[in-house]
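TICKET: design request
STATUS: open
ATTACHED STRUCTURE:
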């Protein structure tokens, strides 16, 4: 075992690189770090070395994501910025610019002050999705960026990027979960789950919604309770390995499995007042088995066969 010490606040995310040699961590202390962990195969011990401290954000970092080729790590921050760093040297490669047409350069760099609560490298084509929340309107905007510049060569001389896609979300609510896959025509699909109970899958080749579901998760209504309290936020999304299915987890404690192409419900587990609590994470093992974890401290494994 090994202990990685150094963060001065709560650790919000920890991810391995695909080769298993490095760990990237983010924290409420406004920093991210890159570590090398060498495991002793015989004794079970491990040697830990801090390689890089990623500093510069002025707000906590709730999320980070590693690119599929292990070249980059992206950090999302409450300061309204998402930065992309090179893993090998810990240097900032560029800062994402969600509002390139704003004439005020300071607002360009800050994203108009809207916190970035999510970032996720898509496993296809080195695309990066980010979400900015607008607390005053209780709304959110999802941007998709072409990090390599192969689809949209929008790199600016000051190190920022222009977004490739801006997704038209329903008004109201915040984005809480993102997941991506490829469809049968090899186009990238990006699914978005929100606090208002909406779930939308976008075809990134057109930025149009392929299908959407309002009230994807609902909690049982209590007598005398207002109807709008019956909508449950979608806090977890994950595609099966082959991309045929999309699983969602909600505050209602349910896990639902959807046909990724047309949004048809294939099966559902839990929820409906079973007191299991909100589902926070979902992971697939192939295309027929998945596990969910939630606020009740229990991991549940389901088979859709």
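STATUS: resolved
RESOLUTION: sequence designed for all positions
ATTACHED SEQUENCE:
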């Amino acid at each position: 075992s090994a202990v990685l010490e150094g963060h001065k606040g709560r650790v919000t995310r920890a991810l391995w690189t695909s080769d298993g040699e490095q760990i990237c961590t983010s924290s409420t202390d406004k920093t991210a770090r890159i570590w090398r962990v060498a495991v002793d195969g015989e004794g079970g011990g491990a040697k830990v070395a801090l390689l890089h401290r990623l500093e510069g954000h002025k707000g906590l970092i709730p999320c980070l994501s590693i690119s599929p080729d292990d070249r980059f790590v992206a950090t999302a921050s409450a300061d309204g910025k998402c930065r992309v760093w090179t893993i090998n040297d810990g240097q900032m490669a560029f800062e994402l610019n969600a509002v390139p047409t704003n004439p005020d350069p300071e607002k360009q760099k800050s994203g108009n002050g809207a916190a970035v609560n999510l970032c996720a490298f898509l496993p296809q084509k080195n695309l990066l999705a980010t979400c900015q929340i607008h607390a005053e309107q209780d709304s959110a905007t999802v941007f998709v960026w072409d990090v390599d510049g192969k689809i949209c060569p929008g790199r600016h001389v000051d190190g920022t990027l222009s977004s490739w896609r801006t997704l038209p979300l329903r008004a109201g609510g915040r984005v809480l979960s993102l997941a991506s896959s490829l469809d049968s025509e090899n186009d990238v699909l990006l699914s978005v789950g929100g606090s208002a109970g909406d779930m939308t899958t976008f075809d990134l080749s057109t930025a149009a919604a392929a299908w959407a579901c309002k009230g994807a998760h609902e909690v049982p209504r209590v007598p005398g309770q207002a109807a709008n309290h019956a909508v449950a936020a979608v806090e977890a999304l994950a595609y099966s390995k082959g991309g045929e299915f999309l699983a969602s987890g909600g505050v209602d404690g349910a896990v639902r499995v959807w046909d990724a192409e047309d949004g048809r419900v294939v099966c559902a587990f839990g929820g409906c007042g079973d007191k299991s609590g909100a589902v926070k994470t979902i992971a697939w093992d192939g295309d027929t088995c998945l596990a969910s974890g939630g606020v009740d401290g229990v991991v549940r494994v389901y088979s859709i066969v």
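CLOSING REMARK: The CA atoms of residues 208 and 253 lie 30 Å apart. The chain has one helix and 24 strands.
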